[in-house]
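Consider this today:
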Amino acid sequence: MKYQKYNLFKFSRKTTFQFVFFLFVFVGFFIFSTNISQGEGVDSYTKLLLHMDDTGLTDSSSSSHTVTKYGNTARSSTQSKFGGYSGYFDGNGDYLSVSGSSNLDFGSGDFTLEGWLYPSASQSYRVLFESKNYGVSGYNGNFKVAFNTGSGTSGQIYMHTYNGGAQGESIPINTEILAGQWYHIALVRSGNILSIYKNGISIGSGALTKSLIDGANGIYVGGDSSYSTNGYLDEIRISKGIARWTSNFTPPTSAYSSLDPDKTLTNPTPEDIEADITAGYLSVTGTNTQASSATINTNYTLQSGSFQYTIPSNTTLTPSSGTMDITALAV
């Protein structure tokens, strides 16, 4: 029995949906899953997300901040953690300027600054994140995150705050950072404690009580006019209102997805399935109506009344023979 021979729309909604379920489980598809790990989806806490895969190095969060490149900052395929590209900074006046917004004002709440760093050479006091008015007299509530390369404990990651006239709290953590390697760096404030993680392992913490309120004036990523990173950055994310990690964790194994990690369609039509294919929820080999396989990229639930069926993320569907019309998943 071949899936595409059935005109599902000749059935009632509920019967159709149950028939689709029957096809999934018994006859219409071979279903198999892989163990590919997915990056977390973009959520309401995500205020900046730089995949570094497009030439503009644009913000993929819902905030859609304007990102301006300075110096020779550019997309590069020489090094990449995910997506085939990263942002390249040559260490001489290269940085990204992110437009200001209240959603970059962290106040006294939780936040997470994170990303992947690949130093190209030995360097010291190079900026990863910085409030635009850090060190400017009269501007309060600013911060700077910087690093030094070095072996053993001679490397360092640190965060400073600024009180409008002088440096405030400082949290320096000694750790090894070598040129020519990728590192996942995360700075997480939970309550009044800032914890710094390297490759998912806590390397130290310190008190951070300062209210950080100058994000409305914008931030720099990858450097400033004086202290630019020499290397590559990938998958930069800023989250407000959440401490993403409060203990050791496994670093992301793929790019953060802008897809809903738990997608639900209620009484979907073929047009709904087509739209989700375009959006990336399903990856089709062949054409949508004559597909040799289709991979589900999130947990994908089809629902009709009280009846529902969830196809787990990373499930691949293949027809028992020939090809299939994937838009006929509709109920």
